[in-house]
Model the fold of this input.
Amino acid sequence: MDKTKLRNDIILILSLLLVAAVTLIVLLTRTTPGKKTAHISVSNQEVEVVDLSKNEDKEYLINGTNGVLHVHTHEGAIAVIESNCPHQDCVHMGYISEAGRSIVCIYNQVIITIDGEPINDVEL
Ligand SMILES: [Zn+2]
Done:
């Protein structure tokens, strides 16, 4: 048995394993599953950043341009549960949880958007 050839084979296998391990680590850290944050802004000014991956049951009071919005988080979703706006469109949006979704209250100039890994469901 050629010892040099065997050593070279071992080095090759080890480096392949290393490449595979590094690739896996990069993939895992890059796409943290379920990592979601909701960004709440009033008149294009970010006023609150909520980590939805914590699954917290929490209420936030957001001072809109014409009144206060009651924003609620529940099981990784966020909703406007109370608002003084005339059409209540933001309240009717209900809970949103997917990245890319947003709730807009034009009356109070409040925008809630969700950032994070997009869920690859076929919903176009
Ligand atoms: Zn509204």
